[in-house]
Write a structure and sequence with these properties.
By secondary structure, this protein is of the alpha/beta class. The chain has 2 domains: 229 residues, Alpha-Beta Complex (Amidase signature (AS) enzymes); 154 residues, Alpha-Beta Complex (Amidase signature (AS) enzymes), CATH 3.90.1300. It is built from 15 helices and 11 strands. Strands 1-3-2-4-6-5-10-11-9-7-8 form an 11-stranded mixed beta sheet, sandwiched between helices. Keywords: Transferase. It comes from Pseudoroseicyclus aestuarii. This is Aspartyl-tRNA(Asn)/glutamyl-tRNA(Gln) amidotransferase subunit A. One of its GO terms (molecular function) is transferase activity.
Length: 445
């Protein structure tokens, strides 16, 4: 049973289908592992053992009757603590929501439950989901699975840790500026950010509705794709996927600037491997991207402040000061500027689509830096600010341009690449990632 903790979601689902794994035993194995793990309190905000056991029992009965609801029926999953769970606290990583217990599951959790997935519990996250570092002194900072003492990446920090430490086969996170993909890169996982709007966000505590997305963090592309298919996302046939003739564009504007040497070396190694496997690598810039990044601060902070201001103004001292400072910047953005900014961004997105139409994906390093030490950023507000902005810079490209994006580990320890596809073409991007994954795995130390 202990090997179940290191298997992926798809493999566990196949084991249930073949009768080798009883979903009840599987749930108990993960619950016991969580209970015994020395870092579990930094990874899970709270578990839902009664719910998990009831859902696993129902999955076991369906498996016995031959009425499984899908390939992942009976497979456990962890949930970032901003997805509402009926009767269980959902606090979004902040004391501002301490004791908040919703009466209804989030829409995405309802879909997952209907597909037979088993809810293990809620994972820790960056406060209000507004940081890419994964540091949260107000609740807990999860550990990094690859570098001792380093931040795990955020804001889906506990989600990544739950999978990387064998405490869930797949995790559900959210991504507004990189919060699925950064922790995936820094913990050696696959992270999938779908096109905005592909999955429902009703019942998920928002940060910025017009950028927020939900998606999986997993050990493999197949596991992440399987979760998406289970909850109503695309279900592409990943068999036979090939890199031969795939046109990949290295975006040289913004995302290739000031990349740490180890990250740059890992990226070069990944590009060489992709090219050797048949991909055709091109390089180009996109000048409007500079302006898009200038606009990101006002667009993000204004919307975040609009939703959070009531809670913040009632108790500002309850927040971690760097997060409070960041979200409070939205107070000074006028409605006219926000509306004009979105209109301008819409034009940029159309121009981007025209520029990228001849390529299968735009590729860049997953993050421009390796994860810094948690103690260093916690004790230095300016380092927190600069490291956070640099951490989210590359992932934010897809959020700003409205693209699906997949993070794959590649080239080095806590390094990875991003494949950014065309809006709405999530299935095609997953096939490309499925072809790239085994090639990039060979580049890892």
């Amino acid at each position: 049973m202990t090997d179940w903790l290191t298997q992926g979601a798809a493999a566990l689902g196949r084991g249930i289908a073949a009768g080798r794994i009883d979903p009840r035993d599987l749930a108990e194995a993960f619950l016991a592992a969580i209970e015994a793990h020395p870092e579990a309190g930094r990874i899970y905000a709270r578990t839902t053992p009664e719910r998990a056991r009831a859902e696993a029992a129902a999955a076991a009965a369906r498996a016995k009757a031959g009425t499984r609801r899908g390939p992942l029926d009976g497979v456990p999953v962890s949930w970032k603590d901003l997805f509402d769970t009926a009767g269980t606290a959902t606090e979004a990583g902040t004391p501002l929501m301490r004791g908040r217990v919703p009466e209804r599951d989030a829409a995405l959790l309802r879909r997952a439950t209907a597909a037979g997935l088993v809810c293990l519990g809620k994972t820790h996250m960056t406060e209000i989901a507004f940081s890419g570092l994964g540091l949260n002194p107000m609740t807990a900072t999860p550990p990094n699975a690859l570098i001792d003492g380093a931040v795990p990446g955020g804001s889906s920090s506990g989600a990544a840790a739950s999978v990387a430490f064998g405490l869930a086969p797949v995790a559900v996170g959210s991504d507004t500026g990189g919060s699925i993909r950064v922790p995936s890169v820094w913990n050696g996982l696959v992270g999938i950010k779908p096109t905005h709007g592909l999955l429902p966000l009703e019942g998920a505590v928002p940060l910025c509705d017009r950028f927020d997305t939900a998606g999986p963090l997993a050990r493999s592309l197949a596991d992440g794709a399987g979760f998406l298919a289970s909850v109503g996302g695309p279900n592409p046939d990943l068999r036979g996927a090939s890199l031969k003739g795939a046109r990949l564009l290295v975006m040289e504007t913004v995302v290739m600037e000031d990349v740490e040497p180890q990250v740059a070396s890992a990226f070069d190694k990944a590009l060489a491997a992709l090219e050797a496997a048949g991909a055709v690598i091109h390089r180009a810039g996109f000048a409007p991207l500079e302006r898009a990044y200038e606009m990101a601060g006002p667009l993000y902070t204004a919307e975040a402040w609009a939703w959070w201001r009531g809670r913040i103004e009632a108790d500002p001292e309850a927040m971690y000061p760097p997060i409070l400072s960041r979200v409070s910047a939205g107070r000074d953005v006028s409605a006219a500027d926000w509306i004009a900014g979105w209109a301008e961004l819409g034009v940029m997105r159309r121009d981007w689509a025209a520029m990228a139409a001849g390529y299968d994906a735009v590729i860049c390093p997953g993050a421009a830096l390796l994860p810094p030490q948690a103690a260093a950023v916690e004790n230095d507000a300016e380092l927190f600010r600069t490291a956070n902005l640099k951490t989210l810079r590359n992932t934010r490209l897809a959020n700003m341009m409205g693209l699906p994006s997949i993070a794959l580990p590649a080239g080095g320890r806590a390094c990875g690449i991003l494949l950014n596809g065309a809006a709405g073409q999530d299935g095609q991007l997953m096939r490309l990632a499925a072809a790239a994954e085994p090639v990039l795995t060979e580049t890892l130390p």
